[in-house]
């Protein structure tokens, strides 16, 4: 069997959009063949050789991250990808704090990204200008001093193109013994079941049958000019196959939200000369360019390499992709630069449509078919929520699938994935639309309102203009846009012209008040909270909706409310070793097993609870580790007391706070709790339960209630199983 390795040449090449496709037509919802997941025997050993525990459809970043997380948790999985090669189009590029925290758990992936990306000073700004060599209308620095201090997170945000991230993820999978197979290198793979740790390129999922005990997916493979079919049996199928998800269509799940917000053409090109000029003169991540000849947004993916993507408004059917040939795109680029360059190399030209939609369901067919990433939600790119939300979907989902596969939880644990992640997707949709509309406020202030342009286009398409010949429609549209761009002439747009002066003042106000397009949203990035799901809400807490998004940057405020991400604090691990490592509280959570973390203070009331948590977790077939968090200034001799109190426990750790200054808050103050409290953390670093100021009653009974609620298993079921 020929295996395609992970050498760089195996990652080269673009999606071949011209290949023939077998179309998958979804049956009506009431005709989908389905059957519920049987918890008792779905993962029995006799299925092991013929039924794959998890099949992931879609080898983008979300699917690859999910494959890594599942494999690290001991769950066998394989990945199907309809494209024959991995795309080299840069696509998403901003990685937020929470996603970088997830990547810290993947064998130094976060460190690799940070060392490989361009220096932050080359991408921290958005620049608004008449051309790249012309007047600067304004700029916004999106990095604040606290973003580098690592007070609220152990890692900073990153600017790293998607295809580079994909290559890094593939290297991680290679280290986990995954192999990539092309459709030309199968040689017998079609005649045996998948055993896990395979990535199959050129395989398009064309049908899904969830009738039987397992899910049967059929993949179409083009071999020697003919389509062959491969049947794959799995217990769980996860669709991570992007905004146009075939899996979502096959199972008949609809999207809800705003469609067709904007049509654009994406032009991927290289120019080291342009990159070097911008490094020297005006470094930035995004350049919003407005002049009388052209309008566009330039994304600087890598100034050092001279890699860019230009986003241009697109108005079909009056315009077609034939209007954006490489030569025409070169001329557009020159108009936006303000001069010609000799080394422009147009790599790829793609049309795309901006939507803001969320799937009606994330989990269906008896909890056996699941959507994640863009398959479950598609946002405007403003703020970079698309890929980041998808990565966090995978992080939420992985430990739950592992809990089911390992017999820790019933299939209902997968329902909590939708309960938790869908509200976040809806919230992020609203926020990204707000951010997109903020971006539109800049051209509107300059007298060039995109809403007016879109309204004119709609009138031409659906109103009286629709009866006119296309050629005449095109002339009218071009004429209106030419008149509109005239608002950007230097004669009009200057301080000496009263109207121009007013518009420039309005533009300055937008920038000063933070009303333009934003890059970072710390409050939403780190502060999102699950209100219900695999958690135990505080008995006295109100489960009100989160504060609605404002579209502006807000600072993150740490919280230990159930459903929140565990706050970050540097702690020193106390051990018998001479070197005592400083780590984040997030590092206390294991990434290679389904293990809960109980954080307690070194007080007498905490010891019985620690023993109870470990004992009950074991009864629930899970595991729990105890962390004793000591106050800053604790000396080693005092810690010996916890060794006596926890001597019978197999897994516990002593850590001590590392304060940045004498006035820094203590751990329990950050959490707004007393040192008689306790926090139980899930494998995805979100808080499952907390006790603010001491337990009342039997700790064993309380822990049984807690684990029963989180995992969806009644204590009586545990005892019946053990007997």
UniProtKB/TrEMBL annotation:
Gene3D superfamilies assigned to the protein according to its UniProt record, in alphabetical order: 3.40.30.120, D-Amino Acid Oxidase, subunit A, domain 2, FAD/NAD(P)-binding domain
Sequence ranges assigned to domain FAD-binding in this UniProt record: 53-425
Region of interest (Disordered), ranges: 540-562
A GO term for molecular function: FAD binding
InterPro entries on file: FAD-bd, FAD/NAD-bd_sf, RIFMO-like
The entry's keywords: FAD, Flavoprotein
Protein name from the UniProt record: FAD-binding domain-containing protein
Source species of the chain: Juglans regia (English walnut)
């Amino acid at each position: 069997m020929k295996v395609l390795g992970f050498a760089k040449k195996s990652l080269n090449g673009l999606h071949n959009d011209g290949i023939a496709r077998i179309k998958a037509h979804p049956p009506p919802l009431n005709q989908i063949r389905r059957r519920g997941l049987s918890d008792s025997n779905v993962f029995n050993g006799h299925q092991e050789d013929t039924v794959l525990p998890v099949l992931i459809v879609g080898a983008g970043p979300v699917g690859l991250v999910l494959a890594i997380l599942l494999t690290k948790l001991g769950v066998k999985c394989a990945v199907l990808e309809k494209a024959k090669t991995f795309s080299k189009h840069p696509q998403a590029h901003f990685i937020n704090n929470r996603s970088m925290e997830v990547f810290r758990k993947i064998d130094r992936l976060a460190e690799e990204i940070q060392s490989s990306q361009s220096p932050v000073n080359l991408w921290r700004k958005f620049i608004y200008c008449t051309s790249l060599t012309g007047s600067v209308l304004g700029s916004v620095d999106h990095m604040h001093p606290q973003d580098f201090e690592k007070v609220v997170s152990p890692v900073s945000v990153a600017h790293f193109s998607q295809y580079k991230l994909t290559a890094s993820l593939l290297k991680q999978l290679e280290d986990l013994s995954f192999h990539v197979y092309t459709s030309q290198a199968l040689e017998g793979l079609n005649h045996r079941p998948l055993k896990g740790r395979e990535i199959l390129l050129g395989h398009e999922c064309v049908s899904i049958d969830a009738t039987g005990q397992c899910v049967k997916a059929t993949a179409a493979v083009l071999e020697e000019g003919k389509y062959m079919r491969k049947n794959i049996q799995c217990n769980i199928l996860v669709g991570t196959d992007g905004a146009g998800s075939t899996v979502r269509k096959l199972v008949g799940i609809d999207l809800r939200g705003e469609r067709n917000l904007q049509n654009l053409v994406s032009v991927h090109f290289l120019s080291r000369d342009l990159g070097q000029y911008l490094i020297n003169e005006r470094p930035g991540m995004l350049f919003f360019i407005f002049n009388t000849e052209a309008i566009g947004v330039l994304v600087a993916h890598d100034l050092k390499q001279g890699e860019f993507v230009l986003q241009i408004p697109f108005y079909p059917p009056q315009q077609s992709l034939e209007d954006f040939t490489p030569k025409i795109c070169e001329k557009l680029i020159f108009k936006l630069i303000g001069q010609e360059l000799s080394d422009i190399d147009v790599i790829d030209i793609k049309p795309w449509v901006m939507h803001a939609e969320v799937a009606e369901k994330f989990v269906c067919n008896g909890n056996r078919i699941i959507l994640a990433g863009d398959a479950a939600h598609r946002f405007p790119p403003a703020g970079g929520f698309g890929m980041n939300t998808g990565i966090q979907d995978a992080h939420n989902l992985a430990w739950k699938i592992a809990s089911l596969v390992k017999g820790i939880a019933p299939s209902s644990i997968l329902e909590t994935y939708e309960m938790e992640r869908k509200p976040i997707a809806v919230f992020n949709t609203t926020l990204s639309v707000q951010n997109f509309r903020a971006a539109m406020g800049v051209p509107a202030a300059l007298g060039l309102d995109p809403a007016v342009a879109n309204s004119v286009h709609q009138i031409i398409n659906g109103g009286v203009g629709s009866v006119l010949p296309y050629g005449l429609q095109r002339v009218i549209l071009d004429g209106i846009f030419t008149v509109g761009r005239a608002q950007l002439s230097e004669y009009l747009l200057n301080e000496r012209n009263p109207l121009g002066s007013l518009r420039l003042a309005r533009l300055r106000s937008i920038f000063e008040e933070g009303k333009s397009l934003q890059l970072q949203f710390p409050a939403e990035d780190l502060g999102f909270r699950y209100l219900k799901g695999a958690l135990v809400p505080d008995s006295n807490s109100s489960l009100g909706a989160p504060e609605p998004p404002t579209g502006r940057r807000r600072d993150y405020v740490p919280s230990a409310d159930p459903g929140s991400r565990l706050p970050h604090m540097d702690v020193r691990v106390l051990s018998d070793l001479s070197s005592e490592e400083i780590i984040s509280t997030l590092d206390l959570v294991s990434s290679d097993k389904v293990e809960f973390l109980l954080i307690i203070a070194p007080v007498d009331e905490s010891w019985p609870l620690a023993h109870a948590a470990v004992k009950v977790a074991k009864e629930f077939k899970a595991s729990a580790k105890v962390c004793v968090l000591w106050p800053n200034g604790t000396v080693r001799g005092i810690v010996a007391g916890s060794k006596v109190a926890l001597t019978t426990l197999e897994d516990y750790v002593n850590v001590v706070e590392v304060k940045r200054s004498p006035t820094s808050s203590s751990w329990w103050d950050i959490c707004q709790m007393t040192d008689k409290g306790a926090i139980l953390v899930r494998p995805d670093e979100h808080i499952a339960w907390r006790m603010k100021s001491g337990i009342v009653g039997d700790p064993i009974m309380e822990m049984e209630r807690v684990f029963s609620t989180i995992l969806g298993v009644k204590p009586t079921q545990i005892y019946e199983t053990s007997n």
